[in-house]
Amino acid sequence: MIYSLMLTCRACDVEPYAYLLHVLTDLPQRAPDADISDLLPFNFARRQTAPPHPA
Questions:
Q1: Is the distance from CB of 27 to CB of 36 less than 8 angstroms?
Q2: pLDDT tens for residues 2-52?
Q3: Residue 12 near residue 45 (C-beta atoms within 8 A)
Q4: Hey, how many other C-beta atoms are within 10 angstroms of the C-beta on 14?
Q5: What is the C-alpha separation between 51 and 33, in angstroms, rounded?
């Protein structure tokens, strides 16, 4: 499973270490029934390349 995630990171041009660090930091802070689809590598890549929201 980890290998599959790493290959998906590569396919999405996501740094695997940065991705895992983000997931392992963010996941414990979420509610048990929280949606985690934003933690998938392809969604993480979109969020990393999205322009910042205006303040």
A1: yes
A2: 899 889 999 989 999 999 999 999 999 999 999 988 888 888 877 766 555
A3: yes
A4: 22
A5: 29
User: How many contiguous H segments (helices) and E segments (strands) does the chain have?
Assistant: 3, 0
- Residue 20 exposure: Cα atoms within 13 Å on the Cβ side: 12
Q: Report whether 40 contacts 11 (CB < 8 A).
A: no
Q: How far apart (Å, rounded) are the C-alpha atoms in residues 55 and 53? A: 6
Q: What is the pTM of this model?
A: 0.71
20 Cβ contact partners less than 8 Å away, ≥ 6 residues apart: 5
Contact 9, 41 (CB under 8 A): yes
